[in-house]
Amino acid sequence: MNKYRTHNCGELSKAHKEKEISLSGWINKKRDHGNLLFIDLRDNYGITQCVIDKSNEIFKKIEKLSLETVLKITGSVIERSNETINKNIPTGEIEVKIKNIDILGETKELPMPVFSDQEYSEEIRLKYRFLDLRRKKIHQNIILRSNIISFIRNEMQKLGFLEFQTPILTSSSPEGARDFLVPSRLNPGKFYALPQAPQQFKQLIMVSGFDKYFQIAPCFRDEDARADRSPGEFYQLDVEMSFVEQEDVFKVIEKLFLKLFKTFSNKKILHEKFPRITYKDAMLKYGTDKPDLRNPLEISDLTNIFEREDVKFEIFKKLVKNGSVVRALVTKNTVDKPRSFFDGIDKWAKDLGSSGLAYFTLEKKSTISAKGPIGKFFSENSLIEIMKQTNASTGDTVFFSCGKKDDVEKILSVARNKIAEDLGLIDNNCFSFCWVVDYPMYEVDEISKKIKFSHNPFSMPQGDLKKLDLSNPLDIKAYQYDIVCNGIELSSGAIRNHIPELMYKLFAVAGYSKNDVNNKFSGMINALSYGAPPHGGIAPGIDRIVMLLANEKNIREITMFPMNQNAQDLMMNAPSEVSDDQLKELNLMLKRKS
Q1: Which of 146, 271, 209, 79 has the alpha carbon at shortest distance from 532?
Q2: Fewer Cβ neighbours under 10 Å: the N or C end of the chain?
Q3: Angle, vertex CA 233, rays to CA 189 and CA 131, nearest 5
């Protein structure tokens, strides 16, 4: 028999009536009713109400105990009267009449209460994370995370995938985010890097002859924190498959995600066959490659309208002549909205640093006309053409943005979400997945103006590889894809380039010599030279999956021991200074700031 308990705090029921039991846990709440003292005892499994009357000699001892004291309680199970049943907890039909207690762990004064889900500052929550994790909501989130990972692992094995672990100490990568570097004691002056992802290793696993690999992989990137991104480390479902095309990867992930999200959420899934959206269309229609398809609003390109003679809006016409684009958002049936609504959107856009959003509302009396600040600049024929190109109707409002293509995409992407939220157009009770495909292989660096890889440099280009035209690299598309849910990017993936000679040519476009490739990717390029299969994969983020299923907006709420915004672990005081002896052993010297 267990020394500390016969049952946990979530399993007692009327079936245990009059049984002698023992429970161990934390004092969650105390309620003193004069002659009776009630204690809610909490453990990982639930809460059981325990009661003691004043005649018991240990009454005063229990009365003095602080919340969060760890107790072993022995007593008998008694049935509650009908009027005192608590239907909110599984043990609500019984209580335990206390006969004796053992104090197993005392507590200091609490810096924050545990029984409440009240919000506290990040500093307090992270410094005392072990207390924060006792709180009901976050405790359940962490259990949910564990269950999701176990479910994924089990499903991947059912799908024929083998789980392997890849190295944590590896070489620095010239692509992607900043590495975390680890000095080598045995190799003075040289450094390991913590893996940003197991990218090269999982490809090497395919070259090694294994067919389907997965791993719940820790990844390390020295990036700034965001609500959906930890500043130091995160976990991903790393997947790679041999002898596959893009659609084969999609089938596996769609099957997994449909089962996963149906198992852990009651929300509906809008499209069980995930839509495929080209990168080009995503940027045009939504202004982003992470579209939230719960939002019905779409963007239209109206640049050609401002080349017409019968449009007199000269500010936009001048900008268009100088290379600017005009794009528009249409809101349906907003003719009755007050002027303050539209002006508020315009002001909001200006507050974000843009030139604002011009607008008019379409009307029909005897003719088609437009009311609003810029409505008078458009002829009836131009309005009819706008309606045709945007699928707008009378009663709808058209918002315009004009400027450089990238700037217009950025402002209309956030405006699309802002307006949809203000109008209540987004259904928060559903998940909407999509694939974004056909990413460009290359893009122009904004600062250097040089050609660089836009996504993953190890991706396979599309088209006939024997006739691949590298003279126009910006026209080359790659077998690269993202999976997005509710506007959150869950993963990027690609079909890999497994042909060494092609890899040299593609890297040359981005300014890498053959020697550069051999030096920086020696393990990969060497392995591909010994008979590599066509292969591809993907790596959905575990943290973001759990965020969606837990209905949380911040990654901190589903991570057991997160860092703060400054990449500091307030509980363990990391990062910390190291001694001179440690530095000497690693052949390092710190340059102190003056």
Answers
A1: 209
A2: C
A3: 125
